[in-house]
Structure formats: structure tokens, C-alpha cells
Write a structure and sequence with these properties.
single chain, 13% strand, globular, two-stranded parallel ribbon, alpha+beta, three-stranded antiparallel β-sheet, 6 helices
Length: 135
């Protein structure tokens, strides 16, 4: 009985980890607001992103948020694509809702992850991404 309970705990623990063990660290190449926005988008900091949008608004928050999402590119990518590429799913969902129709990533994807593939969780790798923006 104790072996069964221990096995259940181990399986639940393995299921709680993501199969994608790569972590990303974003380093800004300059001190511009646009680059800061890109770092927040890639780091999955939705609340920080919204805060910067509010702090730098010139008109309506909704209009400025849409403007930023569609006119700032992060490493030559639409901001939502940048967030999606680096698995920043919270900021991706927020930005994809603000992105123009022709640049949206459809959210009808189904992803199946193999649980057995989560065998080596201690060897997580951190990739450093240098971030620059273009207006």
C-alpha cells in the first residue's frame, strides 16, 4: 500500500513539470521602452507588460496597447510571435488578442506531450536571449 502511494506521488510530481525544460533569460541590448516591453513579453510578465503600456500611454489604454502590440517588433518578430516562440503563454494570449488579424497565431492548436519524455528534469538548460526592438 505504501509503495502504491509513493508511486502515485511520483507520477503526480512528474506530471506537474513541463516537458519543455528549457528556461530563457532575456537581456536587453539597450535601455529603450520598446526593448523593456519585449523583455517583459518574452519573460511572461503580463502584469508588468500592462503596467508599462499604461505608464507610456498617450491616449486610450486600449488604443495604445494595440498600437504597441502591432508596431513594436522584438528581434524582428511581431510581439505575440516573440512571446509564443519562448513559451510565454500568458503574455502571448494577451498580445495575440491585441494583434492585427493578419499577424495573429490561431489558437486552435492541440499539443500532446509524452509523459515519459519528462525523465531528466534536473538537466534544465537556460538559454540567454539578447533582445532588441524596432519601432
Amino acid at each position: 500500500m505504501k509503495i502504491l502511494n509513493l508511486t502515485t506521488v511520483v507520477v503526480i510530481g512528474l506530471l506537474s513539470f513541463s516537458a519543455n525544460a528549457t528556461q530563457y533569460k532575456f537581456i536587453a541590448t539597450d535601455k529603450s521602452v520598446e526593448t523593456k516591453i519585449c523583455v517583459l513579453a518574452g519573460s511572461n510578465d503580463k502584469f508588468g507588460l500592462k503596467r508599462v503600456f499604461r505608464q507610456n500611454r498617450r491616449g486610450s489604454v486600449a488604443i495604445d496597447s494595440r498600437f504597441y502590440a502591432n508596431h513594436i517588433t522584438c528581434n524582428d518578430m511581431v510581439m505575440a510571435h516573440f512571446a509564443y516562440k519562448y513559451d510565454a503563454l500568458d503574455t502571448f494570449a494577451y498580445l495575440n488578442g491585441l494583434t492585427n488579424r493578419e499577424d495573429k497565431i490561431p489558437n486552435t492548436n492541440v499539443e500532446i506531450k509524452d509523459i515519459v519524455a519528462v525523465s531528466n528534469l534536473t538537466n534544465e538548460k537556460t538559454k540567454i536571449i539578447y533582445v532588441g526592438s524596432a519601432k
